[in-house]
User: Which sequence fits this backbone?
């Protein structure tokens, strides 16, 4: 049951961070300085499975496909969800494509 509560907490933290981040990246590609980090404190530590890096890598690949299809360079940043300081999820909020 703890895993379910932790999963819900991570999902809620990610949604809240996406809502407040507003995709603040300037024109260009990945802007790490515009990342938003949400840290969820949990009574148990989550194993480091590399999901943070994996989720960011997959979304960067999607960015490459989208930018290639559109023929333009779009700004993007990430909402990084951490559990006890360890990144577990990187979400590209796709918020700032006003160009």
Assistant:
């Amino acid at each position: 049951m703890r895993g379910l509560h932790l999963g819900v907490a991570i999902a809620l933290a990610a949604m809240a961070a996406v809502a407040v981040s507003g995709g603040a990246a300037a024109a260009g590609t990945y802007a790490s300085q515009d990342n938003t980090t949400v840290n969820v404190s949990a009574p148990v530590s989550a194993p480091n499975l590399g999901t943070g890096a994996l989720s960011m890598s997959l979304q960067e690949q999607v960015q490459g496909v989208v930018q290639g299809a559109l023929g333009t360079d779009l700004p993007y940043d990430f909402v990084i969800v951490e559990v006890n300081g360890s990144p577990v999820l990187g979400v590209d909020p796709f918020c700032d494509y006003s160009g």
Q: What stands out?
A: The beta strands are 36-40, 79-83, 86-91. The mean pLDDT is 73. Residues 39 and 67 are 30 Å apart (CA to CA). The two ends are 44 Å apart (CA to CA).
